[in-house]
Amino acid sequence: MTFGPPLRMQINVAALAGNWRLLAEKTGPATCAGVVKADAYGLGVEIAVPALAGAGCATFFVATPAEGIEVRALAPDAAIYVLDGLLGAIADYATHQLRPVLGSPDALTAWCAFRDTLNSDAGRHNLVAALHVDTGMNRLGLTMAEAIAIAAETDTVNGANRAGIGLLMSHFACADTPNHPLNLSQIDRFAAVRGLFPALPGSLANSAGIFLRPEAHHDQVRPGIALYGGASHPAATLANVVSAQARIVQIRSAPSGESVGYGATQFLKRDSRLAIVAAGYGDGYPRAAGSGDDRPGASVAIGGHIAPLAGRVSMDLIAVNVTDLPENAVQVGAYAELFGPTIAIDDVARHAGTIGYELLTNLSRRAVREVIAEGENAQ
Ligand SMILES: *Cc1c(COP(=O)(O)O)cnc(C)c1O
Questions:
Q1: Cα 34 to averaged position of ligand 1 atoms, centre (Å)
Q2: Among the atoms of ligand 1, which is closest to the Cα of residue 227?
Q3: What angle do CA 312, 317, 323 make, to 5 degrees?
Q4: What is the mean pLDDT of residues 59-66?
């Protein structure tokens, strides 16, 4: 019997670096940034940032200043953008050289005022920001009318660049649905926005946006999920990076006709063997991925064999029906893959009515992260 953590996330840093290089090559001469918000989508910034920086990534996007400060410690020379804009103490942006993504006239005014308080050109030179224009998502960003008004001012961006804007950006709402008509209108609107700010480099594409068409690339692309091996676009074939595994804590037999788990949602149609695995919704494994007589749940992989969940997901445990697996393939103490090279993360997510992004960021709570080199086998 092996002794490892009940739940672990193995992260293949060579595959992560390889995915970044692949996207960078595909989008060159645009530069390729790395989106590492939410602790690098649950992988851990302390693992993801050095791997990406080692591959050549020199620009990172995070959501909050606290995340930016963490990334700064790992990437002293990188450009770090804070997507949620100006939050918390504005001085932190100067202290840690974080670049806010400004998406409202008020934020732009506050940023200009802050820059004006610095009395040296050198100090101001280091205070860079991005300007975010909304092109159809209605989340963050200036409206088109606000962008037009700002473009006409001579002392903020196009003239004196008192705001120190170094990047013009927008964000796709539907890039993962390649034929959605909103994609083309956002591409067109962003081209128009760039016309308003001719001196600024532009950035529009997230992972899925990269695969839409080259007109979406502009000067910088911002992939997140594709770096980590999640599904982004039907044409994207990137390497698996994460393998989430939980240990089998018990193997039991249960007779035909009995039910499994809370609520007795699933009845066994034959004498069965069940493996009880140490992961549940308390670990971020989605409760909605459970199985019932009315609908099948997600599957796990044990020794490369695929086996379906039986019954509901508990807080700390799932039951897996291993009746069809070779007896010697299922051992107490062995790991079951929840998602990874055999079980696609997006398959599990689909069973739970969610997306790979949510699964990745949730599962991180109790999982012990282990870095592996490419090709190294689990266990
Ligand atoms: C999260 C995010 C990204 C990365 O999106 P993916 O779909 O994970 O590639 C890029 N840009 C913005 C503004 C984001 O919020």
A1: 9
A2: 9
A3: 70
A4: 98
Ligand 1 pocket, Cβ-based, cut-off 6 angstroms: 35, 37, 83, 171, 206-208, 222-226
Secondary structure of 1-45 in the HEC alphabet? CCCCCCEEEEEEHHHHHHHHHHHHHHHCCCEECEECHHHHHCCCH
Instruction: Tell me, yes or no, if 269 is annotated catalytic.
Output: no
Q: Does the predicted model carry a pTM greater than 0.85? A: yes
Question: What does the alpha-carbon distance between residue 202 and residue 31 come to, in Å, rounded to a whole number?
Answer: 11
**Cα gap 29→247, rounded to integer Å:** 45
Q: State yes or no: is 262 an active-site residue.
A: yes
Two tokens, residue 123: 């100090």
Tell me the one-letter amino acid at 270.
R
Q: Which of 37, 41, 81, 93 is catalytic?
A: 37
Q: What is the 3 state secondary structure string of the chain?
A: CCCCCCEEEEEEHHHHHHHHHHHHHHHCCCEECEECHHHHHCCCHHHHHHHHHHHCCCEEEECCHHHHHHHHHHCCCCEEEECCCCCCCCHHHHHCCEEEEECCHHHHHHHHHHHHHCCCHHHHHCCCEEEEECCCCCCCCECHHHHHHHHHCCCCCCCCCCCCEEEEECCCCCCCCCCCHHHHHHHHHHHHHHHHCCCCCEECCCHHHHCCCHHHCCCEECCCCCCCCCCCCCCCCCCCCEEEEEEEEEEEEECCCCEECHHHCEECCCCEEEEEECCCHHHCCCHHHCCCCCCCCCEEEECCEEEEECCCCCCCCEEEECCCCCHHHCCCCCEEEEECCCCCHHHHHHHCCCCHHHHHHHHCCCCEEEEECCCCCCC
Pocket mutation for ligand 1, best pick of 174, 222, 345 (most atoms within 8 Å of C-beta) = 222
| Largest Cα–Cα separation, the chain | 79
pLDDT of residue 31: 98
Residue range 320-368, pLDDT digits in tens: 999 999 989 999 999 999 999 999 999 999 999 999 999 999 987 789 9
